[in-house]
Amino acid sequence: MSSLPDLTALPAHDPLELYRYRDGLYAADLLTAAIVEFDFFTWLAACPASSAEICAHFGIHARPADVMLTLFTADGFLSRQGDAFELTPLGREHLVRTSPFFIGPYFASLKDRPVVRDFVKILRSGKPANWGSYQDQKEWSAAMLTEQFATTFTAAMDCRGVYLGAALARTLDLAGRSRLLDIAGGSGIYACALVARHSHLRATVFERPPVDGIARTMIRKRGFADRVDVAAGDMFADALPGGHDVHLYSNVLHDWDTDKVAPLLAASFAALAPGGLLLIHDAHLNAAKTGPLPVAKYSAILMSVTEGKCYSIAEMHALLAAAGFRDLTFAETAVDRSVITARKPA
Question: Is the pTM of this model over 0.90?
Answer without folding.
Answer: yes
